[in-house]
Specification:
This protein has 323 residues and is α/β, with parallel strands linked by helices. It is built from 13 helices and nine strands. Strands 1, 2, 3, 4, 7, 8 and 9 form a seven-stranded mixed β-sheet that branches. A two-stranded parallel sheet has the order 5-6. Helix 3 packs across helix 10. The chain starts with a helix and ends in a 5-residue tail after the last helix. The structure holds D-malate.
C-alpha cells in the first residue's frame, strides 16, 4: 500500500506540464484484456500501430487474459498513472464486468479514465458448418432439440460473446451449454473444428471465416444490416426481433494520468481513425467508426456511464452468477 502511494506521489511529481510536453519519451504498453488473434487484440494492433506512428514511440501489446477482461482492467487501474500504461476494452470489460463481478479490486467507472472511444461492431450468430440449419428459425429449433449436445463458445462471463449469448437465449428461448475461452480468437478456431457448435461473436472476428466458408452466419445483431456483410439478415428480419447488441471499444488510462497526456493520446487515436487506410481495414470487418466529437474523453466518459445505466437492469435480470 505504502509502495503504491509512493509510486503515485512520484507519478504526480513527474507529471507537471514540462513532463507532459516531453511525453512520450519511451514505449507505451497497451494492455489487451483477451487472447492474441481475437477482435480486441486486432483492434489494438490496427489502431495502436497508427497511434504509435503519431506519437513517435513503439506500442507494446500486453495480452492479460482471464475473467472476461477484469484481471487486465485491475492491472491497468493499479499501473502508474504516467501515460506509459494504457488499456483497450469494450462494452463487456468496461461496463458489464462492473455489474457482474462483485469483488473487483478496482472501481470500474472511477479508477480508470477514458482516453478515446473506438469503433463498434455488431455480433454475428455463427455456427460450425456441421450444424444442419439453413436459417435462424431452423437453427433455434435445432438448438432446442439438441440442447444437451450443443455447446457455444464465449470469452467468459461478461465478455461481448457472453452478452450476445444472453441476449440470444433470452429472445429465442434456447439454453445451450457455454464454454469459456480466454478470447474469441481461440474460440472461433474451435468453432471451425466443430469442437463447439455456436458463437454469438463480434463481426470483426467471425466475418473473415464466414467469407472463407469455414463457418456459417445466420444473423447480425444490429438494427440495420452491416454494410460489410449485406447478405446476412438482421435477427429481426430472420424472425427474432429484440436481439440487438453492438459492441463498442475504447481506450482508458489509470486515474491520475495528467490531462495533457490524455489529450495527446486522444489526438493520436483521433488521427488514427481519420486515416483512410485504417478506416478501410476496420469498415471491412464491420466496424462503425465514431466521429472525432464522440471520441473526446468527456463525451466518451458520459457515453460509458449511460451504457452502464442502460445495461445494469438487463444484466441484473439475467441473474448471471460468478462463482
Ligand atoms: C476478444 O477479443 O477475444 C473478444 O473481445 C472477446 C469477447 O468479449 O467476446
Amino acid at each position: 500500500m505504502l509502495r503504491r502511494s509512493a509510486l503515485a506521489l512520484l507519478a504526480v511529481a513527474l507529471s507537471g506540464p514540462a513532463f507532459a510536453q516531453a511525453y512520450p519519451t519511451k514505449p507505451i504498453t497497451l494492455i489487451v484484456p483477451f487472447a492474441a488473434g481475437g477482435p480486441t487484440d486486432l483492434m489494438a494492433r490496427i489502431v495502436g500501430e497508427r497511434m504509435s506512428k503519431e506519437l513517435g514511440q513503439q506500442f507494446i501489446i500486453d495480452n492479460v487474459t482471464g475473467a472476461a477482461g477484469s484481471i487486465a482492467m485491475g492491472k491497468l487501474a493499479h499501473a502508474a498513472p504516467d501515460g506509459y500504461t494504457i488499456g483497450i476494452g469494450h462494452l463487456g470489460t468496461n461496463v458489464v464486468n462492473g455489474i457482474i463481478y462483485k469483488n473487483l479490486n478496482y472501481d470500474l467507472l472511477n479508477d480508470l479514465v477514458p482516453i478515446a472511444r473506438l469503433p463498434s461492431n455488431p455480433l454475428l450468430v455463427v455456427t460450425s458448418n456441421q450444424v444442419p440449419a439453413k436459417d435462424l428459425k431452423e437453427l433455434v429449433a435445432y438448438l432446442k432439440a439438441n440442447a444437451d449436445k450443443v455447446s457455444g463458445g464465449t470469452a467468459g462471463l461478461g465478455s461481448a460473446s457472453h452478452i450476445g449469448a444472453l441476449a440470444f437465449n433470452a429472445v429465442t428461448g434456447t439454453n445451450y451449454q457455454l464454454v469459456p475461452y480466454r478470447g474469441t480468437g481461440p474460440a472461433v478456431q474451435d468453432l471451425i473444428a466443430n469442437q463447439i457448435q455456436i458463437m454469438i461473436d463480434q463481426s470483426s472476428n467471425s466475418l473473415p471465416h464466414v467469407r472463407a466458408g469455414k463457418i456459417r452466419a445466420y444473423a447480425v445483431t444490429s438494427k440495420e444490416r452491416s454494410t460489410a456483410a449485406p447478405d446476412i439478415p438482421t435477427a429481426a428480419e430472420a424472425g427474432f426481433p429484440g436481439i440487438e447488441v453492438v459492441i463498442w471499444h475504447g481506450l482508458w488510462a489509470p486515474k491520475g494520468t495528467p490531462p495533457e497526456i490524455i489529450a495527446r493520446l486522444n489526438a493520436a487515436a483521433v488521427a488514427a481513425l481519420q486515416d483512410p487506410e485504417i478506416r478501410r481495414k476496420l469498415e471491412d470487418l464491420g466496424q462503425d467508426i465514431p466521429t472525432p466529437e464522440q471520441m473526446q474523453p468527456a463525451a466518451f466518459g458520459a457515453f460509458q456511464r449511460a451504457e452502464f445505466a442502460k445495461w445494469k437492469p438487463i444484466i441484473e435480470k439475467a441473474n448471471v452468477k460468478v462463482e
